[in-house]
Amino acid sequence: MDKAIVLFVEGETDLAFYNKVLSELRHLARENGCMSPKTFKKNLEGVGGFKSKATRIFANNIVRNNPKTDFVVFLCYDTDVFEYDKKPQINWKEVADSLMLKGAHKVIQVKQKKSIEDWFLNDYEGLCKYLNLQPQTKCTGKTGADKINCLFKKVNKIYIKGKTNSFIENLNINKIMLKVNKEINPLCKEFGIVYKSGDFKKYTK
């Protein structure tokens, strides 16, 4: 069986970020003599897509065209939408069960706490550099997206959650990955890499 991973994400910004993460993981895998799996990525255009689109896309566009493949599916989403919702719009177990029925070997949630923008803020210096702002520039906001938009407004730009992604290339992805190692470790392991002792190293069971 061939091995492949599938990433489902919420928006264009998330997709651009995970493209960089995957590129970094392939680099780390090569450095450590590990094989990188085939990857499939899909922007579901909103959190509701995990319920309404993910299984259909997986079954019709991925499994059907890649027989004899062992798939590990990652569901990457912000947690802030669900924190205070007594009746969450998505039952993640049902989503996982549906994907498993269509051929997934394993389904793993990557919870972006509280949002992917909070992850971006782990490289605050990179954001400021992209905007030609001093690294000590101060910005406030209730959410990660608010804080990033605050920075953008200082240079007469607007940050649109899920859409704006031009700054991703300027971020230090390795720095961010080190900060959110707990959340992305399952993804790293698919590349033979694991966070250990302050860095990413070859994964040995």
Architecture overview:
The protein has 205 residues and is an alpha/beta fold. It is 40% helix and 20% strand. It is globular, with a radius of gyration of 18 Å.
Which term fits the overall shape? globular
Low-confidence stretches: none
Count the beta strands.
6
> Could you tell me the mean pLDDT?
94
Helix tally equals 9
- Alpha carbon gyration radius: 18 Å
Q: What strand order characterises the main sheet?
A: 2-1-3-4
**Helix coverage percent of residues?**
40-55%
Instruction: Give a quick account of the main beta sheet: strands, pairing sense, barrel closure.
Output: 4 strands, parallel
Measured by DSSP, the beta-strand proportion falls in 15-25%
- How does the helix and strand content classify structurally? alpha/beta
List the secondary-structure elements in sequence, H or E: EHEHHEHEHHHHHEE
Q: N-to-C terminal Cα separation, in Å?
A: 21 Å
